[in-house]
Each structure stands twice: as structure tokens, then as C-alpha cells.
Amino acid sequence: MFVYLSKKIAIPNNFRLNCIAWNQKEGYIAVGGEDGLLKVLRVDSSVSGSISGGKSRNLTAASNLSMNQTLEGHNGHVQVITWNEQHQKLTSSDQNGVIIVWMLYKGSWYDEMINNCNKSVVKGMAWSLDGLKICIVYEDGAVIVGSVDGNRIWGKELKNVALAAVQWSPDGKLLLFGIKNGEVHLYDNQGVFLTKLNMIPINGSQIQTIVSLQWYDGRNGYIGLDCPTLAVCYRNGKIQLMKDTNDDNPIVIETGMTTAWCCWNSCGSILAVTGLIPLLGNGETKDTNVVQFYSPFGKHLRTLKVPGREVTCCAWEGGSLRVALSVDSHIYFANIRLDYKWTYFSNTVVYTNEKISKDGICIMFWNTTNNTCCTKYVRALISIASHGDHCVLAVKNDLTQGSEQYALLVCNTIASPIDTKFTNLEPLWVTMNNNVVITASKNNFLVWSYRTPRNSMLHAGRLRRDKIYHIDETPTGVTEVIQDLDKDRSFETPINTKVTMDPICCLCATDKVLLIGRESGMIQRYSLSQITLTNRYNTGCKLYKIAINCDSSRASIMDTSGMLTMLDLETDSKKNVSKDVESEDEINKFERKDVWAMCWAQDNPVLLAIIEKTRMYVLREFDPEEPISCSGYICSFQDLEIRCVLLDDLMQKPEDTKNELIVDLEVKSLRDTRELLMKVGLKEANNFIQDNPHPRLWRLLTESALQKLDLETAENAMVRCTDYLGIQFIKRLQNVHNDQLKKAEVAAFLGNYDEAEKLYLDMDRRDLAITLRQKLGDYFRVVQLMKMGIGGSDKQMEYAYNKIGEYYAERQNWEGAKEYYEKSRNLEKLIECYYKLEDFIQLAGTVQQLPDKSPLLKTVARMLASVGMCSQAVAAYIKYGDVKSAVDTCVRLNHWDQAVELAKTYKMAQIGELLNKYANHLLSNGKRLQAIELYKKANYNLEAAKLLFQLAEEQARTRTNPLRVKKIYVLAALLIEDHINSTPATKGGRSNIVMGLTENSEDTRVIENAWKGAEAYHFLLLANRQIYSGNFDAAMKTALRLREYEDILQPEDIYCLLALSSAVNHAFAVCSKAFGKLESLETISEAVREEYEDLAVDIFTKHIPEDVRNSKAECTNCESLVPDWCVACPNCMTRFPPCIITGKPLMDLSNAWICTVCRHHVATERDVVNINACPLCHGTVTYM
């Protein structure tokens, strides 16, 4: 960082100032002094963009006084003042104990409350962060806590304690009291004592006075996870920094000064300490006013000398860019140029405000060309540098990614890491060139050959050697040569890590030279790529920054006080002997003061841009040009233009990136050339450029000469700036004899396309205007020009429409692209548009428009298949002639019926095998229902029926839901019927299948017994319903029918049902036979058998085993009388089919109704009049 005094305000009557406070929210400055002096000032910065087109935008030194009000009310010396920023109040107190609260009303300050108890001297006042409470401590130990509205909350007298300072904790729950003897006591916000803090500066030493107690409230974030925020400053110059009140390892700073005050900046990243320090001058020691700046971790950043006898206090501005100092009877303002961690490359600003978040520190990559941002989060950023198209980030490593503590990340402009190096060397400084990254700690430096996509292709076979050197060593390059020859890496030199007496403090590198600065002022020069120490330069100053020009012939050196000097790097063989002494003397004498930024031109080794305070100078050799007002940070210096970024604004709002934060400044020679060309003439400008040659100036002359059609001057200028294409253009222009046409060509060459078009149209050369717009790719204008008159052909118009469609397609505007592709009849692009717009109906319609065998058909088929439009995709494949892809699409989309049909139509044998393979895969994964569905869709009804039969058998074994089992059996039987009916007539049709002539034995058995399972469970359910409804005779007849299904139903269930129904029907002969069958079953246990025997004994001791009813019917075949419950004639063995409604046997089928689906009978058609479906198969009732 760099600090300099920028403004001084004198207080009238030379009243001595005691205290100062700056309202960081609104910008008011309050100062208190002797004899009741209390003033409120306001210093406003200049309005942005008010001078020279924004060049002085946000200049930190440009300020004026917008308020200067004296507040009257105190009689004694005002000693303590503090702001309540939340409620816009000012509180002040004097030596007599008078406390006044001031408020702002209509632009002026008025006293709101006065407390003149005159208890004792007020030593400290502090508002809580929310501004609701104030704590006031008196020298005699009295403590008062009040509210913002003036009410007293509590008070306390601390016995035998002399208070010196007070501070609230950031959360408002704790109070810190600084005691006069140097101790710090901790209380809660109700005044209850908690503990005494361990203060190292007073341990074992004499009593020390606390002059300031500061606790950063964290309102603007923190720069680290364990960042100290509490500072206790003692009169003897010692400062203790603590993370919190429980910090066991505080940081103690020895400032070496008699301190008067200290305070944190607005984000807690810098602590300013004011006081007196003894300095040696003119042979004697004299106390000098200084402000010293420290980081929260105790690192000394900068010292600023302040004129006057005694500095009493300091205060920060809200943005941390200025410090106000009360010195004697004056207020001094010091501007601060912060050392942000940032860099610039390839039109990209990389920066961070170092505020810690839950993801770490956010690094922003801002592309200034298109105003887009990329972000990257790291644990902590240590240093950063850039070169060419890449930057390197030196970060603390996340230990989950490796054991090394640090990492070097080479990134591109979109924050993507290109290469990474993990190391244990602390990368305090880092620089890079096209091939290597050099990073340094205080003792060692590392040279790492990184890889990017470009140089990795150029040096693919080269082994990467990463070497750590010690700063005290003298490398000669021999080790690197040996290592290059050592393919198996057996030769490794040990790394020296001892602490040096002269640490590294800065470094800089180009492709040829590496310069490393040391704290003693020594600069060591190394050659690249073999690291060889070639020279040492003793500068005698405390080095801060080094920069090398573009041809590595000269280096600029900046020390910690802002002094800029030069160093000649040219070797003796390259020096001009005649100018050697003169130039060396000029270099030795050269120096500039108050410099805080410098940047060499990338294309001219003698141009250097520097910033002194708020003035930018461009040095040509050693002569400065006229200064330009600027307080931006220099990004680059190229083509006589200096690009600056207003980092102060950017860091306040890192996400608010806008083009106004980038400022481009021109050097004087560029400005003068423009003025000469505009006001004087080409000849004078030519003479001036010859005296100050630069390609940018020759290009300016070229443009001006072309506009005036001075082709000779333009050609000479193009030769000077080696513009071969421009020379060719001028040769072509010399063959044009029409001046108007020449002007149009020149306008087009210079990029004034609208003017060129207008000139073409004025000459009635619309064809040339169209050609120009076509070259520019502006096809919207091409179409307009074509429509203006009799223009291009239909082919040219279609081409223009096609280009406009491409324009919309590149921007994902598919609706606009579709419109123009339709006009250009570009079917290939229309297909893509339809797909992107999800207009699949139109997409399917393109199949008809495409010719057979067109490759686009395959593309359309894939698109349609991807959204499940199987039929349309198949049609496209068939038209293309790719039947296999059509079948594969059907298979992938589970349209097996269509796949099988295609396979049969085009005689593809492998479809059945594929189907079975997929079905087996489903079955092995327990997906039987999906396998059934697969077979059904493929019209493999018999295979689906077999799986359904297996499922029904498994469900039957659970004995839980017989109705579900029946439904499954019915579904299986219906599939078999579909299988029978789907057989082509050429193969014999239904009759051959039923007779088993076309199937194997297993399939024949399945087909023959298709309805048997359904019948079994139908009659089982029917018998149970008949019993429950009291129709016992019908139930018995149905139960007798169940005897035919012993292979499907449990025999025990059948005969139990038969015994029950016959017993309640008083058919005890049938009942007796049923019990006999039950007792003979081998599948039941002995206990169950005994129960059946006991039940039979109980029944048949009461009833004779005879049937009470003995109804008979005539067999239609043999005309013999048989019992009406017989399922077959005992004489001729004719089977009587059952009625599926009543379950009784049907002897006469002449009047029976037959279901057209399952072919089962009902006694008469009258029985089905009142039902809509077949009771067995649930097919619709139809009448034969």
C-alpha cells in the first residue's frame, strides 16, 4: 500500500484538537478540541466524470468542504466524541463531564440531550452496533448504560478502579473496560463481571496506560477465518491483537512509538496507529509525528510522517481510502492506495476483495469485452500474477486434495484451471512468463514449467523439471543440464531451506531475465531458461516492486517510500560505447517520488507509465509528458493507450461490474497526432510521426491519408507499420478511376460501412452494396437491399434467408430460424428447428417431403424415435431402406408387435430369438408381468398364456383370493383363443391347432386345457355362492362337477364342499361317498382324518346314507334314465356339459345358448337375457 498526505484544514484561532471521528455511513467528520471546540465537517469527493471525460473519476484527492458547522455547548476541552451511525447522532463530552447528544435537523446539527451532572471526567463512550445502547465510563469508575432515546438502563460504580476506555462486543452482549493500570476487564451487557483478559504487554512489567480499545464489529465481513479483530493499544507503543476475548495466543506488536490512538478501517483489514516516534535527522534524534499501518496479523505495512508538534487522533473514511488526522490545530487527510490482489490479462480483470464466505474467498474473472463474470472460490489467496492468456493464483491448498500446504493454479479467462502445482513453499510472491511460473518465499524460490494447451503441443516430449533454489545459492545451470540428460531422474540435488539473513521481498521475470529483490536492496539477476545467477545489483533502498520493459533491457524499481529509480540490464556486448557513459549517468540520476504504480509499454521499451499520487505520467526515456489526472490502477500499456481500472469502486461492489470502471488514456504523442491531422495537415503530421515513430501513429496517418485519397502518403505509412494487406488494398485502389467509388472503398476499408453503402447506392451500384453486406455477414440488410429494386436471383435470396436462419439458430431462437429456413426451403435445417421446437407433427411430415434413400430420413427417424413416435420413425427408416434399424427401434420402444410384423414381412429370423432373450432377462429379474406384456405386444399369445398359467398356479397356492385366480385363468384362456384365431388359414387355421397338428405336445396340452382352470375356479365360486344363497341342490350338482378338476383344485376342498352341499341337500348317499373320499385322502394328517371320521359317524348315526331326492333325466344318446346330477351317462359314457350359470349338467343341448368366445353353454337363451356378459369369460352376450 502507498500513503500520502492530500489535504490540510486549519482550525480557526489555533485551537488544539484532541479527538476526531468520521461517520463512515454519511461522511460527516467531527473534531473536538480545547475551550469547548466542537466542529462537524463534511468533505465530499468530486462528482464522477466531471473532468475530461471521466479521467478524474473518483479521484481520492479531489474533494471540497460541503459542511463546516461549529457546535456550541461545551465549555471545557472536548475529549471524547463518538458517532451513532444507525440513528445519525453525535455524542460528545468534555473535561467537566458534560455529555451532549447532537442530532441532524434540516441540514444542521442541534443539541438533543445534555447531561451536566459533572460527576467525573468521561474517559470513553461507545455505541452498540445496532445503535440502541451507549456505554459511558468515567475516570472514577462510574459506568452508565443508556438507550438511544435518553433513558438510563443501568449504572454501576466500580470500586477502586480508574477506567480508561470502553468497547462493545460486535454482538452487543459483552462490554470491555480498559483500566488505567493496563488491565482489560470483561463484563456482560448487564454489568456482571465475567473475567480479566490476559494482557501480555503488562505481564511482569510496570503499569501501562491504555490509550485506545478497538473491536472491529465485522459489519463489512472478514478477510480471514481466524482474523484478529480486538486491538488494545498502550501508551508505550505496544499493541495486543486478539481474535476474541478467549484468545490464548494473541499477537503483540512493538511499534517503537509513543502512541496516541489506534483504529480499524471499515473492513477490519488495516489498523492505523498514531503517535510520536524518535527519528534521527541532521545528526540528532527528534520526535516525529507518524501514522503506522498494520495488518490484523501484526505485519507492518507502511509508515507516514506527519508534520506538526503532536498528532492526537485518527479516523478512517467509510471506504478505507482516506484517514483523517488531528494534529495540533489542523486536520490532515491522508490518501491510501491499497495493495489489492488483482491482475489483468486478455481483456480480463481478475480480482478479489478477500472477504471470507462459507465457500472461501471469491475470485472474480471479469471479461471487460462482453461484461461477463466468472467466479472461483479458494481457501485463501496469497498472491496473483498474469502473462499472455493466463494467470497464476497462489492459494492455500485444501488438505483434502493433497498433503501440500499451498497450490499454484494456472487459469484461463473463464476461471478454469489449466495446470496445477502443489508445493510446501509459501508463495508470498509470484510472477510468470510464457513458459514458467516463478514463486518465492522469504528464503527460496521455485521455478515451475507449467503446461497450457498451446505449449504442451509444442513441447510434448520435454520432461517437466520443477526446481527449488535457495536465495543464498549461486546456481550455474550445470545441475539443470545434468537433469535434462538424466532420463530416469536418478540425479536429484537436496533442497536447502535454511533461514537467510537477507530475505526475498519482490521478484519479476520476462522470457529472458528473472530479477529477485532482497530486503537489503540487493537485486539478483538470473537467466532463463537455465537458472543461472549472472549479476547482482546493489540499489541501497528498501525494495518494494520491480518491473522489466518489453525487451528486458531496463528495469524500474520502486521502494517502500514511493521512490522510483531505473536499472540498466543491457549486457556490455549490446551497449553503444559512445552513449554508454551518458546513458548510465542519466539512469543513475533518474528518480521520481510518490510513485505507487508503474507499467512498461508492451510494444516500446522506452515508454513507462507511472502514477504519482493522482497524476499519471508517461516517461519516454526519462522525459515525462504532461500529467493526466487518474487514480485508477494500470492494467496495460499498449498502442500508446493506457488502460486503467477503478479498483476502489470495484472492490466496494465486486458484483457490480460496468464498463465505466475501465478508463482508456492516450499518451501525448497520440493526442498530438490526432490534433495535427485534424487541424494542420498530412505533411506536418508525417514529419511529427517521423520524429516520434510508432505503428499506432502510422496507422492514424494511413487512415487520414486514405480519407483524403492521398494514396502515396497512405502507402508509405502502411510500409512503415508493415501492413501488407493495406498495401495490397492501395494497389487495388490505384486501378479505380472513379473518385466516388474510391471513397466508398476507403470507407469500407476503414470500417465505415454505412457510409460506404450510402456511397455505393448514390452511384447506383446496389450490387456492390449487397456484396459489402454479404462480406460483413449482415444478411438482414442484404435482404432489404435486394427488395429495394430488381435485385438478385431466387437462389441469392434463398442464400440470404438461409444465413439469417443461421443467425437465429446460433442464438437459440428456433422460432425465428424456422421462419427463414422455410423461406429458403432448407429442409435439413428445418428438421433441426422442428426438433428443437418440439413440433413433432411437422417433423414427421418431412418424411413425405424427402426422397427415398435420403440420409436425412435416418436423422428424422432417430429424432422421432427419441421422443417415442415409433410408427413415424419406422416409416422413415423403411423409406430410407434400413429395415434393421426400424426393427431395433420397435424393440427399443417396446413395440414388439410391430417389430415381429416387420421381421415377418422382411423375413428377419433373429426377432424371435431376441424376443425370447429379452423375456428371459425380465423373468430372471422377477418382472413376470412385463414379460407377459412383452409377449402380448409381440403377438406371442401362447407364450404369454403359459406365463399366466404359472402365475395363476402360484396365486392358487396362496389360497387367499380365488376370484383373482379365476381372472388370471380367464385371461390366459383368452390369449390362447387369440393364438388359435390368429393362425393363418393357409396353415389349417383353428381346426389344425385344436387337433394338435401344428403344435408340439406341451403346447397341445396347454391349448386343450385352456379353459379348465377358469372352469374350476368358476364352479368353485359358484358352489359357494349357491350354498350361501340356500340353493343346496344346485350347489351339490356344481360340487359334483368339481370332481373333474382334482388336478387344479385341492381334493380336500372339493369333497368338503361336496359333503357339505349334499348333507344340507339330504343327499346322504352322495354325502357318504364324499366322506369316504375324504377319509381315503393321503395328503391329510391322521388328526384331520379322525375328525372327518367322527363327523361322519355323527351324521350317519342320525341319517341313513340314502338320497331323499331322486330326480332323473333321459340321456339324449341312449335314452336311458340317469340321475339329473350325473356329469356323464353311466350306460353310454356320454358327457353332459355344464351350464355355466347354474352348474347343472345339460342332457339336451338343442335349446342351449353357446358363448361365442369361450364356447361354453347355458341351459337356454332365456337364462342370459338379463345378463350382459358371459359368466365365465365375461365376453359380450350374442345370440346365435
From TrEMBL:
<keyword id="KW-0963">Cytoplasm</keyword>
<dbReference type="GO" id="GO:0035721">
    <property type="term" value="P:intraciliary retrograde transport"/>
</dbReference>
<dbReference type="Pfam" id="PF23145">
    <property type="entry name" value="Zf_2nd_IFT121"/>
</dbReference>
<dbReference type="InterPro" id="IPR056157">
    <property type="entry name" value="TPR_IFT80_172_dom"/>
</dbReference>
<feature type="domain" description="IFT121-like zinc finger">
    <location>
        <begin position="1137"/>
        <end position="1181"/>
    </location>
</feature>
<keyword id="KW-0206">Cytoskeleton</keyword>
<feature type="repeat" description="WD">
    <location>
        <begin position="71"/>
        <end position="102"/>
    </location>
</feature>
<dbReference type="InterPro" id="IPR039857">
    <property type="entry name" value="Ift122/121"/>
</dbReference>
<dbReference type="GO" id="GO:0097730">
    <property type="term" value="C:non-motile cilium"/>
</dbReference>
<dbReference type="Pfam" id="PF23390">
    <property type="entry name" value="Beta-prop_WDR35_2nd"/>
</dbReference>
<dbReference type="InterPro" id="IPR011990">
    <property type="entry name" value="TPR-like_helical_dom_sf"/>
</dbReference>
<keyword id="KW-0853">WD repeat</keyword>
<dbReference type="Pfam" id="PF24797">
    <property type="entry name" value="Beta-prop_WDR35_TULP_N"/>
</dbReference>
<dbReference type="Pfam" id="PF23387">
    <property type="entry name" value="TPR_IFT80_172"/>
</dbReference>
<feature type="domain" description="IFT80/172/WDR35 TPR">
    <location>
        <begin position="697"/>
        <end position="784"/>
    </location>
</feature>
<dbReference type="InterPro" id="IPR056170">
    <property type="entry name" value="Znf_IFT121-like"/>
</dbReference>
<dbReference type="InterPro" id="IPR001680">
    <property type="entry name" value="WD40_rpt"/>
</dbReference>
<keyword id="KW-0966">Cell projection</keyword>
<dbReference type="InterPro" id="IPR056159">
    <property type="entry name" value="Beta-prop_IFT121_TULP_N"/>
</dbReference>
<dbReference type="InterPro" id="IPR015943">
    <property type="entry name" value="WD40/YVTN_repeat-like_dom_sf"/>
</dbReference>
<protein>
    <submittedName>
        <fullName>WD repeat-containing protein 35</fullName>
    </submittedName>
</protein>
<dbReference type="GO" id="GO:1905515">
    <property type="term" value="P:non-motile cilium assembly"/>
</dbReference>
<dbReference type="InterPro" id="IPR036322">
    <property type="entry name" value="WD40_repeat_dom_sf"/>
</dbReference>
<dbReference type="Pfam" id="PF25170">
    <property type="entry name" value="TPR_WDR35"/>
</dbReference>
<feature type="domain" description="IFT121-like TPR repeats">
    <location>
        <begin position="1008"/>
        <end position="1107"/>
    </location>
</feature>
<dbReference type="InterPro" id="IPR057361">
    <property type="entry name" value="TPR_WDR35"/>
</dbReference>
<dbReference type="GO" id="GO:0030991">
    <property type="term" value="C:intraciliary transport particle A"/>
</dbReference>
<dbReference type="Pfam" id="PF25768">
    <property type="entry name" value="TPR_IFT121"/>
</dbReference>
<dbReference type="InterPro" id="IPR017233">
    <property type="entry name" value="WDR35"/>
</dbReference>
<keyword id="KW-0969">Cilium</keyword>
<keyword id="KW-0970">Cilium biogenesis/degradation</keyword>
<dbReference type="GO" id="GO:0061512">
    <property type="term" value="P:protein localization to cilium"/>
</dbReference>
<feature type="domain" description="IFT121/TULP4 N-terminal">
    <location>
        <begin position="1"/>
        <end position="337"/>
    </location>
</feature>
<dbReference type="InterPro" id="IPR057979">
    <property type="entry name" value="TPR_IFT121"/>
</dbReference>
<dbReference type="InterPro" id="IPR056158">
    <property type="entry name" value="Beta-prop_IFT121_2nd"/>
</dbReference>
<feature type="domain" description="IFT121 second beta-propeller">
    <location>
        <begin position="342"/>
        <end position="666"/>
    </location>
</feature>
<keyword id="KW-0677">Repeat</keyword>
